[in-house]
Design a protein that fits this description.
There is one protein chain. The protein is built from nine helices and seven strands; from the N terminus they run βαβαβαβααβαβααβα. It has 244 residues and is of the alpha/beta class. It has one domain: Rossmann fold, CATH 3.40.50.720. β2, α2 and β3 form a beta-alpha-beta unit. The longest helix is centred in the middle third of the chain and has 22 residues. It is globular, with a radius of gyration of 17 Å. The mean pLDDT is 95.
Length: 244
């Protein structure tokens, strides 16, 4: 089922930099009426405010705080599209001394944060027959040892995204699960991924995937390699109507 961002109101968590910022710019370039910039530090969106003026509105939000997200949903009750982009990645293997602490913090943001956002905006998205876009990762389907906890948190968020697709689908709300590989962002640089694709590959991919009515998006070259191997499983298991 096709879905366009043109003339829509969108909200993007973690909108101040990296993939989130690129999504803001792509949405506006493709005709979004307004974009809410949901960030922990409102001062961090000044560049976007200067560039886009009244087309953007900054709102303070912390996906680790349920009350903050509930207030966010009340402030942005006119949204059609919610993009849950905010996330964290730390370096921890299963044998790291701080593995439990790191996994707890990543789950809180990357998995529980998704639940907080989805629940807070559920009624609005249903009323507006909108869309939820969740930034997952190729790390949701493949574990890399030195970021095992991050992979676990993204696997959890991907599992929850599948559940949200089914429950929101009953309400006429579209759900898109986005699985980039390493991208040229601060997080990518921290992980040592030099020469990674630009964040616009993700943001422009989201536009196209919404228009195509897809559930999965593997936007960049590396991600597409994962998609080629994963597609058969996704078609026969993830996208299939199976009952338990």
């Amino acid at each position: 089922m096709t879905y366009t961002v043109e003339n829509k109101v969108a909200l993007i968590t973690g909108a101040n930099r990296g993939i989130g910022k690129a999504i803001v710019e792509s949405f506006i370039e493709h005709g979004a009426k307004k974009v809410y910039l949901a960030v922990r530090n409102p001062d961090s969106t000044k560049e976007l405010e200067d560039k886009y003026g009244e087309k953007v509105t900054t709102l303070r939000a912390d996906v680790s705080d349920a009350q903050s997200i509930q207030q966010l949903a009340e402030q942005a009750s006119d949204v059609d599209i919610v993009v849950n982009n905010a996330g964290i990645m730390k370096f921890a293997s299963p044998l790291s001394d701080d593995v439990e602490e790191v996994l707890t913090s990543e789950l809180d943001i990357n998995a529980f944060g998704l639940l907080r956002v989805a629940k807070a905006f559920a009624n609005t998205l249903e009323a507006n027959q909108g869309a939820l876009v969740q930034l997952n990762s190729i790390a949701s389907i493949k574990t890399f040892a030195d970021i095992s906890t991050y992979c676990a948190s993204k696997a959890a968020s991907y599992a929850l995204t599948q559940g949200l697709r089914d429950k929101f689908g009953e309400k006429g709300v579209r759900v898109l699960s986005v699985h980039p590989g390493p991208i040229a962002t601060d997080m990518g640089a921290e992980a040592g991924f030099d020469g990674a694709p630009a964040a616009t590959e993700v943001s422009e991919g989201i536009i196209k995937a919404l228009e195509s009515g897809d559930f999965h998006l593997f936007p960049d070259v590396l991600a597409k390699q994962f998609e080629a191997e994963y597609q058969n499983f996704a078609d026969k298991i993830v996208n299939a109507s199976l009952s338990v």
